[in-house]
Design goal:
Layout: E1 4-5, E2 16-17, H1 19-31, E3 35-37, H2 39-47, E4 54-56, E5 58-61, H3 64-77, E6 82-85, H4 107-115, E7 119-122, H5 135-153, E8 159-161, H6 169-177, E9 182-184, H7 207-223
Parallel strand pairs: 1-2, 3-4, 5-6, 6-7, 8-9
The protein binds zinc ion (ZN).
Zinc ion binds at residues 60-61, 123, 127, 163.
Length: 225
């Protein structure tokens, strides 16, 4: 689970990985015979029993640096990824966050990322914590964001990521009912296809920490079946 790939001076919420470190992490995966793919591709491969060697890479929030920094590096490695976009903030900035302002991808950048083979998925309309929403608002967050992103990507949008990783049984059921094929959480209480666990990757993650995180993620993933 990544958010932003860029140079930075301050990063209080630890959401940014420098371009150099990011390349190092991709190179680390490749050196171990692993390939980064979108969550959609990972699940399709898993359903077909051929997910060995694949690692799902996700980018939350849809920062402009996904288009300018992450995608070119991913393409160079022949990797794919999923970007979870805040549909009501496209072309704007991370207004929900009290950290440094970061620009979000424009419609044009989103289309280019899709054309480069990246999966466009939903992170809701306004990046609100879903457990606090009314039934109507929850439906709108899920359904409107999806319709809007499908218009832009001109392709089905089948994935969702819970803002802040906040999800109770109600949100998980609503995401399923809205027709999403899968949803990403962070550390779900009850893991499943609509509450997939993810592992945070940051600037401090080099070889040893990556190895430990990969092993821990494997354990978490296996313990749910
Ligand atoms: Zn987010």
């Amino acid at each position: 689970m990544y958010h932003s790939v860029d140079h930075f001076d301050e990063d209080p919420h630890l959401v940014t990985v420098s371009p150099q470190r990011f390349e190092g992490q991709l190179a680390w995966l490749r050196a171990r015979g692993l390939r980064g793919v979108s969550v959609r591709e990972l699940l399709e491969a898993q359903d077909a029993g051929r997910a060995r060697g694949l690692v799902g890479l996700t980018f939350d929030d849809g920062y402009a640096d996904f288009a300018t920094r992450a995608v070119p590096a991913l393409v160079r490695f022949g990797f794919g990824a999923t970007v979870f976009v805040v549909s009501g903030r496209i072309g704007s900035h991370n207004a929900w966050d009290d950290g440094p302002r970061k620009p979000l991808m424009s419609v044009e950048q989103l289309r280019k990322a899709a054309a480069a083979g990246m999966e466009i998925a939903s992170h809701g309309r306004y990046h609100v914590s879903l457990p606090g929403t009314s039934g109507t608002e929850l439906r709108e967050e899920l359904e409107e964001s999806r319709a809007h992103l499908e218009d832009i990507a001109e392709a089905p949008v089948t994935g969702f990521a819970y803002p802040y990783g906040h999800a109770t049984a109600r949100e998980v059921e609503a995401v399923r009912a809205a027709g999403y094929d899968y949803a990403c959480d962070i550390v779900p209480e009850r893991p499943g296809r609509h509450a997939l666990p993810r592992t945070y990757i940051g600037e401090r993650d080099r070889r040893l920490r990556l190895r430990a995180k990969l092993a821990r993620h494997e354990l978490r993933r296996r313990s749910r079946v």
